[in-house]
Amino acid sequence: MSGIDARDTELKKELDATLHARRELGEEYESALVDSFLEKVDQRIDGAVERRVRRQLAEQQMQTARDSRTPGATDSWGERFGFGIVSLVLAVPLSAIGGGVAHLPGLLAAWAGIVGVNVVQAARTNPGLFGRRKPSQDSGWDD
After folding, report:
1. Residue-level pLDDT at 1
2. Residue 129 burial by CB count (10 A; 0-12/13-18/19+): exposed, middle or buried?
3. Structural Rg of the chain based on CA atoms
């Protein structure tokens, strides 16, 4: 039984109790009984609205937090392009030094460092690039 069905059943029991009390007490208490029942309905509506507002506020806060972690205006295409150019320009002397001092192992170490720095930069500017999926927008929460 879902949450909505349970609340409807509770509300139906409240209505049945109110109608039973009206039959026992008579018409002179009818307005007080109706007011009491409507107050309970109003409280249930207020509770449901409050839960929805809290959930939507939490979802907005989560979305704001996610958006703050995504690349901002400073992570533009020009910045990424410039980083790539600087990496290639620095690759030439690093390759020469690594290859000249330690031959093939030195060359491989220099290029492993260059590739590593570029992979870290790519992962920072493109969070979903290496198979990390963004969380689903549907939280699966029901009232």
Report:
1. 45
2. exposed
3. 33
